[in-house]
Write a structure and sequence with these properties.
Elements (H helix, E strand, L loop, with lengths): L23 E4 L6 E4 L7 E2 L8 H14 L14 H6 L7 H4 L4 H7 L1 E10 L2 E9 L14 E10 L2 E5 L2 H4 L4 E5 L2 E5 L7 H17 L8 E5 L3 H7 L2 E4 L6 E4 L4 E4 L7 H8 L7 H12 L6 H13 L6 H5 L9 H25 L9 H9 L6 H10 L5
Parallel strand pairs: 3-4, 9-10, 10-13
Antiparallel strand pairs: 1-2, 4-5, 5-6, 6-7, 6-11, 8-9, 12-13
C-alpha cells in the first residue's frame, strides 16, 4: 500500500490521557442488549445544524458517540456495527487502519470529533464527522483537521447500526469479471478490457514465477483519485494514511485511486501468501515487481541512491524506523533493493526465504544477515553498496 506520510510526530510530548471508567447500562430487549454509555471517555461535539430534536437524528448521534467510545481502533464484536458486515469481514470498519494511526483514546482526545451533519440518503443516514485539534502550533497545524469522515447508519433488526460507505456508494456501479478479478467502476468510467486482461496476466505470471499457491478471486474497485477512493473508505478528507491504493487480503477487496484497471503493486498484496511478514519485505517485494507511485523499481532505486549518496550518516535502521527518507520512498525502495539483491544471489529460492522473515524489526537485520551470509556489523555497508550501484543505471 502506497502511503504518504505526514506529520505523525504530532503526539510526541503530549501528556498521557486519563481514561475515565466506562459505565454501561444494559437494557435487555427481545433481541439484543442495548448499551448506553453514561460516562463517555470521548466527548463528541454536535454542530448546530444537526437537529437532535428529531428522534431518528438523536438516536443516530447517540449510536455514533457510543461507537467512538467503544475502542473503535480495536477489532472486536462491536455492538454498534451491523451484523452482516461483521460476519463477512474480520476487520469490518474500512476506515479503522487509516484513521487510527494512534490509539483511539489518544487520537480522539487530541483531535476531537465533531458531528457536522446527519442527513437522510434514501433508506440510510450519512454521518459526517470532522476531527479537529485545538492549540496546534507551527508545522503541527498542517495536520489539522486529521480527517473528515462520512459513515452510514442503517436499520437492522429494528435498530440503527453503522455501515461502511463502500456498498452504498457502489450499489449501482458496473461490474465485469475476467478470470478471477471482478472489476467494479462508476457507470461514467470507460472500462479498458485490454488493461484488465493485462492485470490478470500479471497476477498469474507472478504466481507461476515464485511458485505461490493459486490466488483467490477478488473485487477491484476503480476510482479516479485518492480522494474519490477515500469516499469508499468512509472519508471525505484524510491526510495521515492517505493512499491511492489499498488491499484487504482476507476480504478479497482491492481499492485503487489511479483511474486504471492495472495496478501491479497493489495486485501483489492480494497475490502474496498471507503471513505476518515484515512490512519492509512485503512492500519491497511489491515495489520490486510492481513499481510504486508511477515509477519502475529501477527509477525509484536510482533516485533513492542519489539521495543516499549525499548523506553518509544514514543507517539501514533509520530507514526501517522511517526516521529518514520518506520523501524519497526510502522504506519501499530499500525493501525492493534487498529483494533484487536476493534474486541476483539466490534466485527465486532466496527471495521466497526473504518473504518468510517475520514482522519483528528488532531481529530484521539478524534475519537478513542469515539469508545473505553476512555479519551483523557488515550489514549497513552491504545495504549502502547495493543501493549505490543504481546511480550508474
Amino acid at each position: 500500500m502506497k502511503i504518504y506520510i505526514f506529520i505523525l510526530l504530532i503526539f510526541v510530548g503530549f501528556t498521557n490521557c486519563q481514561i475515565q471508567t466506562q459505565t454501561e447500562t444494559k437494557i435487555q430487549s427481545g433481541e439484543q442488549a442495548a448499551v448506553v454509555i453514561e460516562n463517555p471517555k470521548i466527548e463528541v461535539e454536535i454542530h448546530g445544524r444537526v437537529d437532535t430534536l428529531k428522534n431518528e437524528i438523536r438516536e443516530i448521534a447517540r449510536l455514533w458517540t457510543n461507537y467512538l467510545n467503544s475502542n473503535p481502533d480495536k477489532i472486536s464484536d462491536n455492538p454498534y456495527w451491523n451484523e452482516e458486515e461483521k460476519a463477512k469481514y474480520k476487520d469490518f470498519d474500512f476506515s479503522r487502519s487509516l484513521l487510527y494511526q494512534f490509539p483511539a483514546h489518544q487520537l480522539l482526545s487530541e483531535f476531537k470529533p465533531k458531528i457536522l451533519s446527519i442527513e437522510k440518503e434514501g433508506e440510510h443516514y450519512g454521518i459526517r464527522t470532522i476531527y479537529l485539534a485545538d492549540g496546534l502550533e507551527g508545522e503541527y497545524r498542517k495536520s489539522n483537521p486529521w480527517a473528515i469522515q462520512k459513515i452510514y447508519a442503517v436499520r437492522e433488526n429494528n435498530q440503527w447500526r453503522l455501515r461502511n460507505a463502500l456498498p452504498i456508494i457502489t450499489e449501482n456501479w458496473n461490474r465485469k469479471t475476467i478470470d478471477k478479478i471482478t472489476f467494479i467502476h462508476s457507470p461514467y468510467y470507460k472500462f479498458n478490457e485490454e488493461l484488465a486482461l493485462k492485470a490478470v496476466k500479471f497476477c498469474n505470471q507472478l504466481r507461476d514465477e515464485f511458485m505461490f499457491p493459486d490466488w483467490k478471486p477478488f473485487n477491484f474497485y476503480i476510482t479516479r483519485s485518492g480522494d474519490e477512493m477515500g469516499g469508499l473508505l468512509n472519508f471525505e478528507f484524510f491526510s495521515a494514511g492517505y493512499t491511492t491504493g489499498i488491499g484487504f487480503h482476507e476480504a478479497r477487496i482491492l481499492l485503487s485511486g489511479i483511474n486504471s484497471e492495472y495496478y501491479p503493486h497493489e495486485f501483489i498484496h492480494l497475490i502474496l501468501p498471507k503471513i505476518d511478514r515484515h512490512g519492509l519485505i512485503e512492500e519491497g517485494f511489491a515495489t520490486w515487481k510492481g513499481g510504486q507511485n508511477g515509477k519502475t523499481f529501477e527509477e525509484s532505486a536510482k533516485l533513492f541512491a542519489i539521495e543516499l549518496s549525499k548523506n553518509e550518516t544514514v543507517t539501514f535502521l533509520d530507514v526501517v524506523n522511517k526516521k529518514w527518507g520518506w520523501q524519497y520512498a526510502a522504506y519501499y525502495t530499500t525493501g525492493a533493493i534487498i529483494c533484487n539483491s536476493a534474486y541476483k544471489q539466490g534466485g527465486v529460492r532466496l527471495v521466497n526465504e526473504l518473504l518468510k522473515i517475520p514482522n519483528n524489526s528488532e531481529n530484521l537485520i539478524k534475519n537478513l544477515c542469515l539469508q545473505f551470509n553476512l555479519e551483523v556489523k557488515d550489514f549497513d555497508h552491504f545495504w549502502r553498496n547495493e543501493t549505490l550501484k543504481f546511480i550508474g543505471n
